Amino acid sequence: MENKSVLKDLKDTLTLGMFKQNPTFILFLGMCPALGITTKCVNAIGMGAAVIFVMFFSNIIVSLIRHIVMDEIRIPVFIIIIAALVTILEMGMEMLTPELYDAMKVFIPLIVANCIPLARCEAFAQFNNPFKSALDAIGMGIGFTIGLLCLSFVRELLGLGTVFGVRIIPTAFTIPAFSSSCGAFLTLAICASIAAALVIRNRKRAQLKEEVV
Amino acid sequence: MKFKYTLSPNYHAKTSTHRIMYDVLFALLFVCICSIVLQYHLYGIGGAIKAIVIMAICVITTNLVNLIYWKIMGVAMKDMFDKIAENASIITGLILALTLPLGANGNYEIFYVAFIASIIAELFGKLIFGGFGCNIFNPAGIGRAFCLIAFAKVLETPTIDGLGSSSPLLTLQGNPNDLDTVKQSFGSFTDLLFGFHQGAIGETLIIPLIIAAIYLLARRVIDWIIPVVSVVCVGLFAFFYSVANGTFSIDFVLIHLLSGGLFFGSIFMLTDPVTNPNTKQGKFIFAILFALITFLIRAKGNLPEGVVFAILICNMFVPFIDSLTVGVTNENTKKKILSTSVFLIICILLVMAFTLVA
User: Rounded to an integer, what distance in angstroms lies between the CA atom of residue B67 and that of residue B83?
Assistant: First the structure.
């Protein structure tokens, strides 16, 4: 019995970031890359992988040192850890995938300023053990990737007429505004409003259930 | 003695939203028919059919978007007709259609542009905010601005058939100091007055637009302040700009007054009852601000025409203007006139100062 509840707890930790507290649509964290690089689906996957990498290691390191770090200086310490990881990532990406690196040049160093890794260190990793923190990082990272993919799917389809580089809509029927910033804001607003509508619907259903019980 | 008890509001004005909308629709249809006749005169039967198709696409799309939206929101099918009529989507569609250009001969991309612009106008301009009466921006203006950004290439390509010229304001932007070239591009001012030049479907018909405005004024659908003040102020700003520039000529003022969407925008789009200030003084300030932004975009901006963006920017300022003017119960007319004229003088000085900016 106890074993089951532990498993459920772990599962909740993993899925929390994916849907219930999706960083892009519910928490509105990491808006800068969500608006900036989502012109193509490939960029979204690359950005998501980069953020998962950084969050995974930063969450583990922070939760390992959570008893050593003093409360007063915790944020600088977290930032230094994240910055070091991002620097490693940047160098690695430049060596391994130069094309992807070119596509999202400015946004890789900006992961340091991205709110999600710091928010998860602050809100989760400094209170939990390394294993749970790692799960949380993966869940949140996947949630972020899902958010980016939703945005970039709509924007690439309408703006460039392609999905993952495969042409679906002929060039004559594309709406180029969706590749520019105004399309980014529009798409984000639509997706976030749909997410909000789903949240409200779920809450109502849960209330109904409670009333029935 | 007998008292009659009713709930508030207790005033008995004959104007209802429905009657206003029928009047606006009537005026718009008049402009539409005039513009179809004009397109027939300019481009032959092909131009007329193209204009009719653009109008049909806009009206049908706005109504369809309404239908789908209210269906999703859970409105029953039997209430649907009332709901769509209440949202005045025909008017939005027609206004949007009249602001679109005809496009080059044999080029049908404009139909796609009209389709997308209608969706954006109806959905993001009106329905997202909760339908007619809740929108903060002019819906047709939003659709027009979006397709101006999204399809700049389609809309800016000068049509090289029929008249063989680009729109007067586009030529003016190309040669700001060479009025003769600009005048050559459209012939004479009577041509400009009767709409024999390049432009959007509805905006070139100055005389039918004025007739429509007089009809709307007579039916008390629109207030005289906004159209008159905004047109006069654009003239004033053009006058003072050219005086400060040292290149004064009455032609410059006339070109700014008669070309572009100034008349159409100030009569049909700026007077939208939803996105207007509520007081007389507010309307004066609103119209002056509109004229200022329109003129500055035309003279100093990157775009040849600034009416649409000026309308949207002014819509943003409406709550602010209202907060300044609504609720002042003691009628100090002198003070109001003084403050409005001070605002106008500041605007004129601003326009004159802009001549110094390169």
Answer: 9
Tell me what ipTM this predicted complex has. Answer: 0.74
Measured between alpha carbons, how far is A119 from A116 in angstroms, rounded to an integer? 5
CA-based nearest distance B150→chain A, Å: 4
B116 shares contact with chain A (CB less than 8 Å): yes
pLDDT of residue B100: 85
CB contact under 8 A, B112 and A172: yes
Domain boundaries, chain B: 17-163+198-221, 224-325+334-358
- Beta carbons of B130 and B230 less than 8 angstroms apart: no
Please give the structure tokens belonging to residue B240. Answer: 């003072």
Q: With CB atoms and an 8 Å threshold, state whether B146 touches A172.
A: no
The DSSP H or E segment spanning A163 is strand A162-163
- pLDDT tens-digit readout, A100-138: 888 777 788 888 877 788 888 888 888 888 888 888 889
Q: Cα(B202)–Cα(A162) distance, rounded to whole angstroms?
A: 36
Q: What is the pLDDT of residues B39-74, one digit of tens each?
A: 888 888 888 888 899 999 999 999 999 999 988 888
Characterize the bridge pairing of strands A162-163 and A166-167: antiparallel
